[in-house]
Design goal:
about 120 residues, single chain, 3 helices, five-stranded antiparallel β-sheet, alpha+beta, globular
Length: about 120
């Protein structure tokens, strides 16, 4: 006698957007704040100036609700904070990280934008 196979539950990925290639990134605004001196610096990059790998990483992380720094890392004092405001044709997206929680696939972009950053008002 055969047993009925268990029913599969439909996948419910709450808080996630699909990272489709249809999303066009127009501009990325970078803001770096905090650290020992508490300086605020910023820079911008046009969508055409970021690599395909960086674009895909931005889309993937922007679709993740938990893109904010983890409780563990955000407790550290004098931690540098990074904000990425992304203008897309599908609407704005925002990512926030601290030194300890920058995703590996966004590390090169954060370093590049940090090198270009100039002092800005808080």
């Amino acid at each position: 006698m055969g047993q009925a196979a268990p029913k599969k539950k439909p996948s419910r990925r709450r808080g996630r957007k699909s990272a489709s290639s249809d999303v066009q990134i127009k501009k990325v605004r970078f803001r770096q704040s905090g650290g020992f001196a508490g300086l605020v610096r910023g820079s911008e990059a046009a969508g055409k100036d970021i690599t395909d790998a960086q674009r895909k990483a931005l889309e993937r992380h922007a679709g993740n609700v938990r893109a904010a720094p983890s409780d563990k890392s955000s407790r550290a004092r004098d931690m540098v904070m990074y904000e990425l405001d992304i203008d897309t044709d599908a609407g704005p997206m925002r990512l926030e990280f601290d030194d300890a929680s920058v995703p590996d696939d966004l590390e090169a972009l954060v370093k590049e934008l940090s090198k270009r950053a100039k002092p800005t008002s808080p």
